[in-house]
Amino acid sequence: MLILPNGSGTTGTAFGQDFFRREFKDGDVPRCDLLQTGPVSVVELVLVNGTTLDINCFEEFRRGYIVATVFNDPPQCDDLYRTYIRYDAVFQVNVRTHATDQRLGFIKHPTAVEEPE
């Protein structure tokens, strides 16, 4: 049995706008950048339908959804696309570390936030 989260996406879900604003505040959000040495971090969103999105960049945290750029072919990361994700579609958020210089990671980048009305 699949139990879907309910709510407006801002305060009614575990992974609402408040969560993303808190966890990825101060521009601490994914951005495409090839790091030559040391480990790199990767952010993944697992959706309620089982799809895993490998995030390149959170562009905006809107009231009802996230605007994100997603890697289509990690770890090469040559192909990106933009997607609009409802907060209540997010089942799990993973932040993983890869110990390779062949992986694209993220650096600080400010995210636009749509304030609640």
How many strand segments? 8
Uncertain runs: 7-11
* Total number of domains: 1
Individual helix count: 1
Percent helix range = under 10%
| Beta-strand content bin | 35-45%
CATH architecture: Roll
Spell out the helices and strands N to C: HEEEEEEEE
The outline comes out as globular
CATH topology: SH3 type barrels
- How large, in whole angstroms, is the Cα Rg? 14 Å
By secondary-structure content and strand pairing, the structural class works out as mainly beta
Distance between the first and last residues' Cα: 35 Å
User: Can you summarize the main beta sheet?
Assistant: 6 strands, mixed
Mean pLDDT: 74
**For the record, what CATH class applies?**
Mainly Beta
What's the layout of helices and strands?
Blueprint (H helix, E strand, L loop, with lengths): L16 H7 L9 E2 L5 E8 L4 E10 L3 E7 L8 E7 L3 E9 L5 E2 L6 E2 L4
Parallel strand pairs: 3-8
Antiparallel strand pairs: 1-7, 2-3, 2-6, 3-4, 4-5
Structural account:
- The protein is mainly beta.
- It has one domain (17-108): SH3 type barrels, CATH 2.30.30.
- Helices cover 6% and strands 40% of the residues.
- The strands form 2 sheets. Strands 2, 3, 4, 5, 6 and 8 form a 6-stranded mixed beta sheet that branches. A two-stranded antiparallel ribbon has the order 1-7.
- The longest helix is centred in the first third of the chain and has 7 residues, at 17-23.
- It is globular and about 40 Å long.
- The N and C termini lie far apart (35 Å).
- Mean pLDDT is 74; it is low at 7-11.
